[in-house]
Amino acid sequence: MYDVEEIRAQFPILSREINGVPLVYLDNGASAQKPQVVIDAINRGYAQEYSNVHRGLHTLSTISTERYEGTRDVVRKFLNAASAEEIILNTGTTEGINMVAYGWAMPRMEPGDEIVLSIMEHHANIVPWHFLRERQGVVIKWVDVDANGDLDPQAVIDAIGPKTKLVAVTHMSNVLGTVVDVKAICDGARARGVPVLVDGSQAAVHMPVDVQAIGCDFYAITGHKLYGPSGAGAIYVRSERMAEMRPFMGGGDMIDRVTRDTVTYNEPPMRFEAGTPSIVSTIGMGVALDWMMGVGMDDIAAHERHLRNRAIERFKGLNWLNVQGNSAGKGAIFSLTIEGGAHAHDISTVLDKKGIAVRAGTHCAMPLMDHLGVGATCRASFGLYNTEAEVDRLVDALELCHELFG
Ligand code: PLP
């Protein structure tokens, strides 16, 4: 039985007040809060167990290394990868996608080769491909979402042509909450011999992920949205792709031997982890993922579905509120505008006065905002600790915004 109050009690920040009222944290899409177990792990990591990893033979280095490497296996389990050797630990999704762009795509793409993207990608899954466009003449092919903000997997598959070298899509939109049928896309792309990168930054927080069932080649996640620390993340790379990938960054730890004239590299995945990593953050991410699995990914998904339904039900009574791309099957992420032209920044300022944290702006997804024809929205993104009462507080505060600006 999912006990949201018991879960909330594990997040110290949720008991604080903002502007004299209890905090309602609805900015989980940007970054999630941390449970006490993660805070304790970070504290212990620095206070009692800190040392560099992979390098020393002393006790502290052994402990740090074991905990750090332990995270690799937790990520494997979290994503159901076949082997921990398919998991590269890094600083987050942005690094993961850049690594694929530089290490895998760049060496194998020629002018005129194509990458297929959906229009609702986060800039982290757009700008690295623009680098390839600028530097190597790679062509980006865009697939639009429909009026409901849904992405037809067949449209993505149909965009694949003889020159397509990669499909890169999000598993869940950080703006609309749209869940993409990435398995269907992977099935279609594999039949055409084209690898698929999935940006799992948003989806992995809200639903169980199984990279083997999806059949993707790359799956990127980011620790700070997964109730873990910032500065830690991971990317699953299917072993065949890992073998094709060149190191992205050079430095310590990723080498086998260095001489004046030559260098040979460590085995994958270490080959892709140059320099001193985010040791304690990575350990904290492992604790966060373990904790989430303990809560139960199916139960988290069911709780958030319930919150989404409640929000949609309440929003129906507000005929001046626009919910961008609202259709069934989405996650509990809502991009909102108020008729009458109130700016998202003004709305979010009023919500803040009521203790409610949301994000206002274009959400690092400018091509999508252009496609939707909206300048900026207020995004309310729910997490595993949010409650029905918080949905109601959001609605009350939106009503106040309508009175003020509508
Ligand atoms: N992709 C999506 C869908 C996101 O929502 C985000 C973060 O907002 C990212 C990528 C980038 O993640 P990070 O900044 O942690 O690297």
From TrEMBL:
Cited function: Catalyzes the removal of elemental sulfur and selenium atoms from L-cysteine, L-cystine, L-selenocysteine, and L-selenocystine to produce L-alanine.
UniProt-listed Enzyme Commission number(s): 2.8.1.7
An MF annotation (GO) of this entry: pyridoxal phosphate binding
Record domain Aminotransferase class V: where: 24-394
Organism: Limimaricola cinnabarinus LL-001
Top-level EC class as recorded in UniProt: transferase
InterPro entries: Aminotrans_V_dom (IPR000192), Aminotrans_V_PyrdxlP_BS (IPR020578), Cys_dSase_SufS (IPR010970), PyrdxlP-dep_Trfase (IPR015424), PyrdxlP-dep_Trfase_major (IPR015421), PyrdxlP-dep_Trfase_small (IPR015422)
Cross-referenced NCBIfam families: sufS
Keywords, alphabetical: Pyridoxal phosphate, Transferase
Entry keyword DNA repair: no
PANTHER family membership: CYSTEINE DESULFURASE, CYSTEINE DESULFURASE 1, CHLOROPLASTIC
GO biological-process terms attached to the record: cysteine metabolic process
Protein name stated in the entry: Cysteine desulfurase
Pfam families per UniProt: Aminotran_5
Cofactor(s) needed: pyridoxal 5'-phosphate
